Please model this.
Amino acid sequence: MASTYVAVGSSPIPLATSLAEILNAEAIICNVRRFPDGESKITLPRIPKGHCIVVQSTHPPVDTSMMHAIMLVQKVAQTSEKVTVVVPYMGYARQDQEFLRGEIVTLRVVMNMLMAAGADRLITVDIHSATGLSYSNNISSVSAMPELAKHFDSMSLDNPLVVSPDRGGMQRAEAFADILGMQAITLDKERDRVTGEVSVSAGSVDVKGNDIILVDDIISTGGSIVEATKFLKEQGCGDVFAACTHALLINDAAKKLHKAGIRQIVSANTIPGLTATVDVAGVIADAIS
Ligand code: R5P
Model:
């Protein structure tokens, strides 16, 4: 039987090593050197054969991380029989349509680049929307929701209610709520496509006395969760927690969230960080095997 390797570029190393352990694969931790002009040089300490799983998230600096993924795929494809690329956090996933005339559908561009570099299959976690999956039959998305939900299973919350900050995330929030036997509702979020400004509302939501778990795929600037928390607090809710798959937490986003009243932020290890306590290696391994 062919050997299996897990090659990881710059990030996320804990997820990649955990995946290698589960798959009984050899982990290849690459040496990544960044030059003052921004270019990168990646050196593999061992050349893979057989099945090589490349793990590279594309969190900030997004273009550099994306380039690392493409470089790695291209290199391992030269010697491997099969290449699976795991992009735990898929940057550009929100640019999956031409929302305003003239916009580039960047997600399609980067997915094409990864496949053209030599990937046979691409796996990501909680892709922003199913639209991204329509660009190739070889792309799939697994969900961190079951693992994130486990984190809340043992917590004692008062009348817990799961809330999606927007309609687009309702399916994910429902999946999360189902696992915990809770109810899920959605708010209405509007984002100005030109300024990026976010506003949150909802017809009539009765959240008085409910502890809330806000569930989202990405927390970036924190704007969506801050606005949702403000709204829910005004309606008289109890404690508010935030669960997300990908915690980008740009600049002082975590501080803003806590200031708005978020008790705890929990995320998956698709992006390394203080909140990334939920390991999704098992879910990815299941999709690979
Ligand atoms: C957008 O619809 C996504 O699901 C997230 O809600 C959004 O990306 C979060 O971004 P931010 O934290 O900057 O509001």
Notes: The chain has eight helices and 16 strands. The longest helix spans residues 62-77. The mean pLDDT is 96. Helices lie at 13-22, 62-77, 106-117, 145-153, 170-180, 223-234, 253-260, 281-288.
